[in-house]
Specification:
mainly alpha, elongated
């Protein structure tokens, strides 16, 4: 396979959308954490503290998802620079690493979704008769 400047450039739209989705998830969780924190301060519900711990874990995972996504994007830019400079082997190595970083980011995203679904399942179970 021949790696050209356009190959890593193809990942820019995907990585940009991925980062936007991660940021939206982070902002939603931050809002929920603020709401639960306020509720815990006034009502001292024991279940809220457990939810906050779950959300804290998810926020850390999202932070890591974003870090690996940014590192992948950085690697794609570096790859393009190396290819532009005529360093084909280095560009191929960096591009491969960028793909691995994106895989890690996506894996973390899956893990965070599984935690989220599990939390929702527990929430729904509380409402069942």
């Amino acid at each position: 396979m021949e790696l050209t400047l356009t190959t890593p450039a193809l990942l820019f739209p995907a990585l940009s959308l991925l980062m936007l989705a991660y940021t939206n998830r982070f902002l939603t969780l931050a809002s929920l954490i603020r709401e639960l924190h306020r509720r815990y301060q006034t009502e001292h519900e024991p279940g809220v503290a457990g939810q906050l711990n779950n959300l804290r874990r998810r926020v850390y995972i999202i932070r890591d998802m974003q870090a690996f996504g940014i590192a992948s994007l950085f690697g794609c830019v570096l790859c393009m620079f190396l290819l532009f400079a005529g360093q084909l082997l280095a560009g191929e190595i960096v591009f491969g690493l960028s793909l691995l970083l994106m895989l890690v980011s996506l894996g973390l995203s899956l893990w965070e979704i599984l935690i989220s679904v599990d939390a929702l399942r527990l929430q729904i179970r509380d409402m069942e008769p």
